[in-house]
Amino acid sequence: MRHLKRIAPDYIHSIFFGIEDSLVSTTGALAGIAIGAGSKSVILMTALVIIAVESTSMGASEFLSEETEEDIEKEKMPANPKISGLLVFGSYVVAGLIPLSPYLFLPHLTAIPFSIVFALIGMFALGIAKGKVTKKSKLRSAGEVLIIGGIAAAIGVVIGLVFKV
Predict the structure, then answer these.
(1) Is residue 120 within 8 Å of 98, Cβ to Cβ?
(2) Which string of DSSP letters, residue by residue, matches 3-25?
(3) Positive/negative CA dihedral, 92, 23, 50, 41
(4) What is the pLDDT of residues 79-137, one digit of tens each?
């Protein structure tokens, strides 16, 4: 992780933000849709739409917020808003493939628990990386990301169970 010291903190923020948001929102949405809808083709199409739209939206939002911050705080040397936006976009797409991958290879009902477990493992790994970067307890950081992200992703499961169509 020494090479991360040379990366602007804003870029690290952008990468972590994209990964965490993708793992949580993609997993929650896919699990909820898989439970509630039951059609593998609907699940796959929805996943691709979610990842494409959300990664683009997140990348654009990061760019615009960084650009706004840059305009407000001219004296601060901020990260390049375009790079930050691309980092959020790219990390969201890559992380979105983690909960999506079981749906590509397994029947949708079998894929649900694998998708959730893969995403939880991803959140735990992200928390460990966060602990390394911030020089805080890796286990505490991993637990924090896992609990907060897991609760947020669980909302999709609950919605799917309540509103089956």
Answers:
(1) no
(2) GGGGS-HHHHHHHHHHHHHHHHH
(3) positive
(4) 787 888 898 889 989 998 999 999 999 998 899 899 999 999 998 998 898 888 888 89
For residues 56 and 86, give the distance between their C-alpha atoms in angstroms, rounded to a whole number.
9
Q: Which segments of 106-137 does DSSP mark as H helices, in order?
A: 108-134
Compute the Cα dihedral for 62, 67, 69, 70 and give only its sign.
positive
Residue 16 to residue 97: CA distance in whole angstroms? 15
Q: Could you please report the per-residue DSSP string of 69-101?
A: HHHH-TTS-PPPHHHHHHHHHHHHHHHHHHHHH
Q: Report residue 40 CA to chain centroid gap.
A: 22
Distance, in Å, from the CA atom of 81 to the CA atom of 66, rounded to the nearest integer, reads: 5
